[in-house]
Design a protein that fits this description.
Helix content of chain B: 40-55%
Shape of chain B: globular
Largest interface: A-B, 45 and 44 residues
Order of helices and strands of chain B: HHHHHHEEEEEEEHEEHHHH
Largest sheet of chain B: 7 strands, mixed
Shape of chain A: globular
Number of helices of chain A: 11
Number of helices of chain B: 11
Structural class of chain A: alpha+beta
Strand content of chain A: 5-15%
Largest sheet of chain A: 4 strands, mixed
Structural class of chain B: alpha+beta
Order of helices and strands of chain A: HHHHHEEEEEEEEHHHHHH
Radius of gyration of chain B: 20 Å
Strand order of the largest sheet of chain A: 1-4-5-8
Number of strands of chain A: 8
Distance between the termini of chain B: 24 Å
Radius of gyration of chain A: 23 Å
Oligomer: heterodimer
Distance between the termini of chain A: 54 Å
Strand content of chain B: 5-15%
């Protein structure tokens, strides 16, 4: 099949919109519209034909998204299903069977089924490969026992991607297997995890004798670490943030606070703000360049730079904002344990922004782990001497 | 703002980069630069300049095609500047082929541009290397210029000095000026104090292109700084892989790896910011002042940090004259001051982006 051009894509979208008028759509109509858009290959256009795409270039996706937005069409509320779109979908696409892809991808994209990610554990954070949740063979399926943590959306999710230990007698990376878990299965218990902002975006998930059919295994037994790399690389790209205009994001909040309040200005704060403005703009342009690299089909390692600087900047900018606002910055809107389904790092009040930003250098790979990844995989520096890679997982101290 | 600017390198630009890098590896290894600095006395490496300007025909990248140049090839020029920075090459490319050439943009004497394009003539804009705002204008009486300008880059060997004066840009023959070499922090790019004593001068154009020349100077210096920083990072990474202490490569210690990872992030950002500033120049864009200041800040910071880390992580050998790290440290710090330090550009940016300290 010939490569899809932008003109081809626009023609297909026009034809689709002529058949599916988005005007005055209600909730039922919304779902029907999204399903039809998926079936027409106009969901994620770089995905294969039959799985919501047209095998087109990745750079054409914004063309499709913009065209549907301009037509006033309903979207799939992407911020609500970010884990599905950003992590589960690419992993299923690369490592799933045909049956798994056709079962999971459509309702994932339409938002009918929300996904969550069950990777981290109380005893396995940065050292994810050391995780202890066990999956034991049982007839034609598996039985899971263990505890997962830091799971956003677990309380509304229908499915999870999950990493479990299938063989404790081999070194830790070799004994992992990747599964899709039905969150409604017996033995799955979800409890809110209250974070230092007061709310509970995340959950703890307890797994007690949970049965998983073998057809929900993603990739080979023992290949879980390799499969998880696909998920994690996509997570870091998506946490790095989307395309923002100048002064989009946290720096815009700080710049506005400066402009709005001449009375609180000091030379020292001015210097801080200008330094942060420069770093934020540099990070933004880096993100722009990374997206151009992706669109050109030559993804480079620069994406890890984006995530690392995003975390540092959010923390520094939100801290400066509290200093700038003085007394007023100390007033919070609420300490209630709400359960947000969408997170806006730049939302709510200055205290929230400051506190929430503390998570940015921990979630999706701590900044320290990212620096190791950059140093070893990009710069090619040697690893620290390891004591944990050649020993059976069960024999590691913990 | 020009959001749609292409920030990626074309395959032609990649080819140019490898060509220039290969030539410099052969003609300008660091040992040559170290000798240049140790011997002192030369204004620039004349043999290398002939190769760059005439041999490879790169002096005319910014000269209009009608005058024998390649016609505003900003992106290609930035590639050349970055590679020359990577080699701390002692040639007057930025001062002559970028700054002076751009200042002559509205020249009434196209033949001058032709001679600059061929490389037979080099020129320098007679302003202090650290200039960041409008230059002080000299006075011209009866076709003769009088006055002094301190610390002008690459003026020592320039055939022609371009003097911003009251009523326009004047050309003064290099030999007609009293030029005193300054012992400078960065001897790979000599500075000179200029004394004009009723030196014969002829009007060659208006001053309208001088601000653009200074903007280009800031952006191109940032490109040079990316070259400086990338050499420092590569050299340091290479050394830390080979240097053993405590029975393991020094580069396996996280205390060093994390610092180099941060440096790599900063360099990645500097590349994007410089690409944006150069793309804006190439497109004749509307965001040039912000882009150039941004590039100069980010470029200066990464070059200085990379060079300082290079010295530190090499340990004792990095503090010696025989190791090239100091060539880069000096170039980094001197270029940080050139055309406005980061602090001055932050002050300018504050006005440009409406974040003033005081209410206006």
């Amino acid at each position: 099949m010939a490569e899809i051009t932008e003109a081809d894509l626009r023609a297909r979208i026009s034809a689709f919109l002529a058949d599916h008028d988005p005007a005055g759509i209600d909730d039922d109509g919304r779902l029907a519209f999204l399903r039809a858009r998926f079936d027409a290959g106009l969901a994620w256009v770089h995905f294969p034909v039959g799985l919501g795409g047209l095998a087109a270039g990745r750079s054409l996706q914004p063309v499709a998204d913009d065209a549907f937005a301009e037509a006033g069409a309903p979207d799939n509320r992407p911020t609500r299903i970010g884990i599905g779109l950003g992590m589960a979908a690419p992993t299923i696409l690369v490592h799933g069977t045909d049956a798994q892809r056709s079962r999971f991808l459509r309702p994932l994209w339409t938002g009918e089924e929300v996904w969550c990610q069950l990777f981290s554990e109380p005893g396995a954070g940065s050292d994810l490969a050391g995780l202890a949740t066990r999956a034991r063979r049982d007839g034609d399926g598996w039985v899971l026992d263990g505890q997962k943590v830091w799971t956003s959306m677990a309380h509304v999710a229908r499915w999870a991607i999950l990493l479990a230990r299938t063989d404790p007698d081999v070194p830790k990376h070799a004994g992992l297997t990747f599964f899709v878990l039905d969150m409604t299965a017996p033995g799955v218990e979800v409890r809110p995890l209250r974070q230092l902002t007061g709310e509970a975006e995340f959950n703890e998930v307890y797994l007690t004798g949970v049965r998983v059919p073998d057809e929900h295994r993603l990739g080979d037994v023992g290949a879980g670490w390799k499969v998880a790399q696909t998920t994690l690389m996509n997570e870091r790209v998506s946490i790095g943030g989307g395309a923002l205009p100048r002064e989009g994001g946290m720096i815009g909040v700080l710049a506005k606070a400066w402009r709005d309040q001449p009375a609180v200005r000091t030379p020292g704060m001015h210097d801080t703000i200008m330094r942060l403005w420069v770093r934020a703009e540099a990070a933004r342009l880096t993100g722009l360049r990374v997206r151009q690299q992706l669109a050109a089909g030559a993804p480079g390692p620069d994406g890890s730079a984006v995530k690392l600087s995003f975390a540092t900047l959010n923390q520094q900018i939100s801290a400066a904002e509290l200093d700038l606002r003085g007394d007023e910055g100390l007033r919070r809107d609420s300490w209630a344990m709400s359960r947000p389904e969408e997170v806006d790092f730049t939302g709510r009040d200055a205290g929230y922004r400051y506190l929430r930003a503390k998570g940015n250098s921990i979630e999706g790979g701590t900044s320290e782990v990212l620096r190791n990844i950059i140093a070893e995989r990009v710069l090619g520096l040697p690893a620290e001497p390891r004591v944990d890679t050649r020993v059976a997982w069960k024999d590691l101290p913990r | 703002m020009s959001e749609m600017l292409d920030l990626l390198e074309s395959s032609d630009e990649q080819d140019l980069r490898s060509g220039v890098r290969e030539m410099l590896a052969a003609e300008c290894p660091w040992q040559t630069v170290l000798s240049f600095v140790s011997d002192g006395g030369e204004a620039y490496d004349a043999k290398l300049w002939r190769t760059v300007a005439t041999g490879m025909g790169l002096a005319g990248l910014l000269v209009p095609e009608a005058q024998g140049g390649a016609g505003a090839q900003w992106r290609a020029a930035a590639v050349v500047v970055e590679e020359l920075g990577r080699a701390v090459a002692p040639v007057p490319f930025v001062s002559s082929a970028v700054v002076a050439t751009t200042a002559l943009g509205s020249s009434d004497e196209p033949s001058l541009l032709g001679r600059l394009a061929s490389g037979e003539l080099t020129a320098a804009l007679a302003v202090p290397y650290g200039l960041w705002s409008a230059p002080t204008l000299l006075s011209v009486v009866d076709g003769a210029v009088t006055g002094t300008v301190r610390g002008v880059a690459d003026a020592l060997g320039a055939g022609l000095l371009l003097v911003p004066a009251d009523d326009g840009l004047y050309a003064v023959d290099g030999a007609a000026v009293r030029r005193t070499r300054v012992l400078s922090l960065d001897e790979t790019r000599p500075l000179a104090d200029l004394e004009f004593r009723a030196a014969p001068a002829r009007l060659v154009g208006s001053l309208s292109a001088v601000p653009c020349a200074l903007r280009a100077a800031a952006a191109m210096t940032a490109a040079e700084q990316v070259g400086v920083a990338s050499w420092c990072l590569d050299e340091t990474v290479g050394y830390l892989k080979e240097r053993y202490q405590f029975g393991r490569p020094v580069g396996s210690f996280q205390a060093l790896k994390h610092r180099l990872a941060d440096l790599w992030v900063e360099l990645t950002q500097a590349r994007a910011v410089v690409a944006y500033a150069i793309a804006d120049l190439a497109a004749g864009g509307s965001d040039g002042r912000v882009a150039a200041s941004l590039a100069k800040i980010v470029g200066s910071e990464v070059a200085v940090r990379a060079a300082e880390e290079c010295v530190q992580m090499h340990g004792g050998i990095g503090f010696t004259w025989e190791h090239p790290a100091h060539l880069y440290l000096k170039r980094a710090k001197a270029t940080a001051v050139a055309y406005g330090s980061p602090d001055r550009h932050r002050a300018r940016l504050a006005t440009l982006v409406d974040l003033p300290l005081e209410e206006s």
